Amino acid sequence: MKELDNIGDIIEFLEEGNKRYGDKTALQIKDGKEYRKISYVELGNRAIDVSSTLIKFGIQKGDRVAIISENRPEWAVAFFGIISCGGIVVPLDVRLKEKELTYILNDCGAEYVFVSSDFVDVIKNIQANVKKIISLDEGDEDVLSLKELKYTEGEPEKRKVALEDTAVIIYTSGTTGNPKGVELTYKNLFFQVFSFNKLLKYDFEDNFLSILPLNHVLELTCSLLTPLHKGVCITYLQTLKPTEIISTMKETKTTVMIVVPLILQLFYRSIMKEVEKSPEIKRLFQVSLNISKLSGGFGNIRKVLFKKIHAGFGGRLKCFISGGAPLDPKLATNFRLMGIPVLQGYGLTETSPVISVNTLQKNRIGSVGKPLEGVKVKISDEGEILTRGPHLMKGYFRDLVKTQEAIKDGWFHTGDIGEIDKDGFLYIKGRIKNLIISAGGKKIHPEEVEEELLKSPYIKEICVLGKKDKRGGEEVYAVVVPDYDYVKGTDKEIRKIIDDEIKEYGQNLADYKRVVDFEIWQEELPKTSTRKIKRKEVVERVKIGWCP
């Protein structure tokens, strides 16, 4: 990609935005009834304040600095400030528990942490080598406030970074319980920026609504860096309530938004709730759908037919970009018939993240689109999706063995099974590994959950798996074999004991990783000759409702 050959460093990226877009609002969030805004110039200046102060503190190029906060303009200020001084950003999930945060901060060696007010006490209490906490809100005698970081004298020091330097380390759950730090370079990030700008052709008049966490690389690259490169205004919203999302879309006249399928389902239910209010409305809606099918979307007929629905989303919506979990083709089809394209994509944190995506011009429902320009994808003899290109991570932080296991002969092994049709569209057929994906797009490794719950003396064996829920995703389900040397009582009493143990030991896990339901088996789980649990057999038994 030619743009990568000409790109400078992150400082130039910011300065270019300052010159091009000046006082235009870059980032905003609703504070009460009014929007609190940061312009492109202010974003650049405040990033210099942060960068200069961190250099004064002694931050060296390559040092890790963490951020744990909800989405807000100050998150971006901290992000650009850290990388402007050559630091490496470690964005953390706000739903992680103290044990998980402690592990990650110790593993990456972050001594400085930017936090929102909700996490000041959490970071103070964990056993990690944190030298300084910087609050995105107000500080105190032990905690600096972001507002206090001011560049005051002399020329601000500019640290050059190379495209191959690590920009961020994003921790993803490990299959053995310990999260792995995925190192993404500036080249990875900029590749995604230029790829998405080509596909979506953002312009100065676009308005982006950001609702997914910025610690996810998809939101970071495609909802922060990409829009800012083209002078787009980004609005943050710290809720997933459909009514508030739709209200904000109306106010800001949102043009593009990244969502998970669950959000689309909630939107569709909201639409259908209005449709079902009267037989007349329902009849008109069905007639409009039939006309839309026959027209094939000729001209703007779908926007005319469903004018009220488009107005409900703000009137300027170009498309939704869907990722993180499988998208129901029927849902995508219904939105397309209403004149709202849903572009499904595919990728992993290790691929920074997008491998393939549908576009406005080429959107094949059911597929995850074609690979980005410059990205190579092939299917192995076992049916696994392999990929290589400028989107591929540098590696797992300080873990050469796991890196070499994942990347062989330059090809990253995704662990997903797929097919490529004759036109080059990629289809996901299943997962080789045991990943559980919730309706909200959260990814859970069952081994991580099992490791925690097996600490209970009352649980002898456990197999954690994903069980389909009503929202189209998977919930965390467990098959438990109690240790009957410790557990005594009736079936009801034993279930109560196991339930209490699951809740107690699940406290060390993020909420979305906790077991929702379980069943008890009295005999041991089926195993291979090497004593590995035969997960497929367990799944089949659970599916047909039979257990020992």
- What gap, in angstroms, lies between the N and C termini? 57 Å
Mean pLDDT: 89
Helix content: 25-40%
Helix tally equals 18
| Biggest β-sheet strands, sense, barrel | 9 strands, mixed
Q: β content, as a range?
A: 15-25%
DSSP E strands, number? 27
Structure, described:
The protein has 548 residues and is an alpha/beta fold. It has 3 domains: 160 residues, 3-Layer(aba) Sandwich (Rossmann fold); 140 residues, 3-Layer(aba) Sandwich (Rossmann fold); 105 residues, GMP Synthetase, Chain A, domain 3, CATH 3.30.300. It is built from 18 helices and 27 strands. Strands 2-1-11-10-12-13-14-15-16 form a 9-stranded mixed sheet, sandwiched between helices. It has a 5-stranded parallel sheet with strand order 4-3-5-6-7. Strands 17, 18, 20, 21 and 22 form a 5-stranded antiparallel sheet that branches. Helix 2 packs antiparallel against helix 3, helix 3 packs across helix 4 and helix 7 crosses helix 8. It is globular and about 75 Å long. The mean pLDDT is 89.
